[in-house]
Amino acid sequence: MPKLPPLDENNKVIPHDHEEITNEQYIIRRVSHQHVVSDGNGGQKISSMLFKSNSGELSIDIKKFIEDAGLDVKKFVTNPRFIGSVLICVDQIRALGYKVGYDPIQENPYHGEIWGNLKSQSNIKTLLKQASWFVAIDGVSLNENETL
Amino acid sequence: MGYHSTDIFSGLSSQRVHQQKAIIRPTHEFPYRENISSRLQELICLELGWDGYRAKPVSFDKATFAMNMLEAIYSTNIQTNLPSIVPGVSGDLQIEWHYNGYAIELYVISPHNVCASFYHEDNNTAEELELTSDFSQVITWIKKMMQENTNAKIASVR
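Predict the joint structure of the above. Result:
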């Protein structure tokens, strides 16, 4: 099991860069059909809301932790409600000034968080450009670099 | 919770009219009212954790504000398509229009606290504003987005 994260006096995880989430690893963000929007030209794309958070924290799955537990990662992060998922390299997230840490919860021991300013349009656009499909949604474009 | 799509914002009419006067005085009918009301109703009724993690449903006050804001924008007789409305993880929401590579995003963090942005996907820069009750710049952006589309069509015909 990964080393437990630092906690504050209310047992809430303190924003941190977890030492076992190294820069070459990948995190996963699940995609709900709620994130799919019209691209205005007859197609569909993923909304920037996939990465926006007013609270400054965004839930993720830590891919390596799921793999280390011997689970099928794609099966673990996918179900009829969250039909797709994307990957981003931890290094690219930290390069934007965000912290990437571990925040296990009862229903997901591989749950982590990204902490930082998740309202900045330029950062959100960068995250979307850097993301790639892990479990793709048919007919939905993730970013403008992608060809379907 | 069984809201009826046409009922969800009823009872707020006097408040809405008051707010509209403070924002943009409406002069025309609101073209997408039913579609938008129905979508907001759906987002208010989302279950906790709808994103696969810990996301909350959209809060009623933010949905109501979004409705008022869109009514004010569309009441200026602006010509554009129906926007997408996307829930956020904190009970917030975003209204967005996409057209020919252009994007307008109105991130409703709380009532009268909107992060607005306008950009083209091929361009790394974006116009970003924090809006409270004056959404005239959004109308300017929509006109620009639609005009660029018209110009592109004219150019392609030539």
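The first strand of chain A starts at residue 26 and ends at 31.
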